[in-house]
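chain below, 127 aa
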Amino acid sequence: MKIQEVSEKFEISTDTLRYYERIGLIPTVNRTESGIRDYTEEDMRRVDFVKCMRSAGLPIEVLIDYMALVQKGDSTIATRKEILLEQREQLTARIEEMQKTLEILNYKIQVYESKMVETEKKIKGTE
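prediction:
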């Protein structure tokens, strides 16, 4: 699959895909005889993984280290698992914090809606 197609499929700019390749998040993508990138299914699985992890807030540096370990093979499985466990813990903490923030926002919105209803009642009562 060509870079533009991958870009559209994963909603990632072609510049971002090139950047990911340059920094090692995606291994060097095969090219056609004319030099056009030709993404394999494996390349696209990696793009999907990186996009998912970035969306979850994992730092680029962590992903670079993780993907470098993937390239080294099965001898790094335990280390990769530790990285993922640590990132899961951090993500869980962020989700809990975001949930608290959402609860506060919902409360404040409810307070404002109640005040707006009270104001409307007062206005209608004075007409």
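The CA atoms of residues 54 and 60 lie 7 Å apart. The chain has a mean pLDDT of 94.
thats it, cya
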